[in-house]
From TrEMBL:
Provenance organism: bioreactor metagenome
This protein's name: PPM-type phosphatase domain-containing protein
The keyword Transmembrane is assigned to this record: yes
Alphabetical list of SMART domains matching this protein: PP2C_SIG, PP2Cc
Range of residues in the leader sequence: none
Pfam family of the protein (one): PP2C_2
Transmembrane regions: 314-334
Domain PPM-type phosphatase residues, every copy: 2-239
Keywords for this protein: Membrane, Transmembrane, Transmembrane helix
Amino acid sequence: MKVYTYSATGKRSNNEDFFGYDPAGIFIVCDGVGGASKGEVASRFVVDALISEAETILRGRLNEDLIQKNIAAIHQDLNKRLQSYPEETGMGTTLSMLMIKNQAAYIAQIGDSRVYYVNPSSREYWRTTDHSLVQELVNSGIITESKARTHPKKNVVTRAIQANDKGETVKADIIKLNKLNAGDLFFLCTDGVIESFDDAELMAVLCKPGLSAQGKLEIVRMTCENGSSDNNTAILAEVEPNDAFNNGADHQMAMRKVISHTSSAETPEVVHDVSGNPYEIITPGSRLSAISDNQSGINIPEGKKSRKKRFNSLKWLILIVIIISALVVLFMIISGRTAEKQAQSLSAHNTAHVRFHGIRGLDRPD
């Protein structure tokens, strides 16, 4: 595998992202959550632990159970750390991990960091599903994917490796891939990258013909440098001919097709799902259902995400509009009452004048 990486602090004061990889076949990106609770400690802890266990993990029979057990063990180690550092209660991290060994590839996913699998030649791709509040709202049909990008609660994740004193651990979504082609790409990233790209924009870069994998990652980095306020980290791994395999599995996983717009911008869009490559989806258990805005999630602080700024600005704008509207209504009411009084005064004057002439008329001799 050809591997290219980068990590940037963005417009924040510290970097809570952490990544690592072992050329033997393990690639990891983590995004710390918890803000003041040392999210950067959790992300580094998990990456270091998994990389140190990479040889053991890859030496064994790689399967879902082995991966889940290793993640659970590391989660327990993070929980035990609280006994020595109780001030770190609440710290946690997302996890996006790729493992390749013996003609099989596994992806493990926790949180809202992502793994993309891309076939540039066919312009098809697949990606992990976020464990976030807005994704659950999308799944329920309450909002669209485009609305999710600007939703005021898009900073809430619903699953993370989070330190706790109850000894609780979390399960990952595990996906098994049974076929890899030379030239295919794996793109692992934190949500700071997604802040600058939607899927179509990202695929425009990753599927761009004639551009090396290193050049593609550099475009991503430069775009995030200008467009992301969050930490942003990515790993881009390119499948080489000796890494490719096809074990003939019968299971299939839908790939998304990217087709270019006819506009001058030529920005690709996802138009439909297609099948045709053999992949197996392994589901670890029940997902959260019907999450509402007041249900629990891990709320990443505003220092971690700048996402609430636009929402707060909108609230002030709405308040100003309401105040102006109220003043206009008040002015109209006062003006109406003044006009009414003037009309009444004029009416009284005219009535008195008519009565005066009427009296004089009665006095007129025949």
